[in-house]
Amino acid sequence: MSQNNKYILGVIVCLLLLFVIFLSHSVFQEKDVLTTPSTNAGSKIFIKGSDTILPVSIAESKIYMDLHPGNEIIVIGGGSSLGLASFIEGEVEIAMASRKIKESEITSATNKGIEPVETIIGWDGISVIVNKNNPLESLSVEQLQMVYSGEITNWKELGGNDEKIRVLVRDQSSGTYGFFKEHVLGDKAYTKNAIIEPNTEAVVKDVSLNTASLGYIGLAYMDESVRMIGLGTSEGTFYPNADTIRRGTYPLSRPLYYYTDGEPEGTVKEYIDFVLSAQGQEILSDIGYLPIN
């Protein structure tokens, strides 16, 4: 082989080696890009539970997502018990509850390696409502218990019209159902004649259409289609408002809860911090509930 041909062959070999090195570098670089998670990747949070808290979480999540476009929050109602059950199964990051988690639910969660941590996000007063044409102004807690246990069945026994009382209750998955039973009925059972409503909107609609109906709802669902009545205790008759709920004089005052697995972290913490911020608490107040402070 001539000297010139050897030189040409050497150049070709060098070029081939350079091409192989370049190709290898490109492949490894592409591999690194494909396997390294992006720091800008968004997060998805599932929130489920109390229909009482549902409008709050929907409003809060909308503003939060506007401020954090990369993150997505999906909010589902269905009742406190359903939300806590999904939380215990690890299906959601946050459970909404309008009642405190039960010991049995804590045990179930612990057995599955989940540590329920409670955050109070606001305050509510369960409002007892009647039709706008019902003349009754107030009931004592004892009278309310007698109506809901079935001992009183006619409005005339309470000073109202001669009309059978339509007793409305929420379904058993509702935290409001459980809270009302605990604080009004105690160890008594709801009357068997109670009409079970699937959600709070249905309670409001029924009361607005029927002069004989009596129901209970979260404060934020109160509107002009129905009328709120006072509740009497040994200390007087009270209506749910900022003063009576904060002082605890209104007998059906209650906190509203978020439950997370352990102390909130990452995007979950960021979202809950937003709910507890001045802006988040203002949103909660606009919905109709009371801020924590």
Write the layout of secondary structure elements.
Elements: H1 3-35, E1 44-49, H2 54-67, E2 72-76, H3 80-88, E3 94-97, H4 103-111, E4 116-125, E5 127-130, E6 138-140, H5 141-149, E7 166-170, H6 175-185, E8 195-197, H7 200-209, E9 213-217, E10 227-228, E11 230-233, E12 236-238, H8 242-247, E13 253-261, H9 266-276, H10 278-287
Parallel strand pairs: 1-2, 1-3, 6-11, 7-8, 7-9
Antiparallel strand pairs: 3-13, 4-13, 5-9, 5-10, 11-12
Can you put this structure into words, describing what you see?
The chain is α/β, with parallel strands linked by helices. It has helices at 3-35, 54-67, 80-88, 103-111, 141-149, 175-185, 200-209, 242-247, 266-276, 278-287; strands spanning 44-49, 72-76, 94-97, 116-125, 127-130, 138-140, 166-170, 195-197, 213-217, 227-228, 230-233, 236-238, 253-261. It has a five-stranded mixed β-sheet. A five-stranded mixed β-sheet has the order 8-7-9-5-10. The longest helix is centred in the first third of the chain and has 33 residues, at 3-35. The protein is globular. Mean pLDDT is 88; it is low at 18-40.
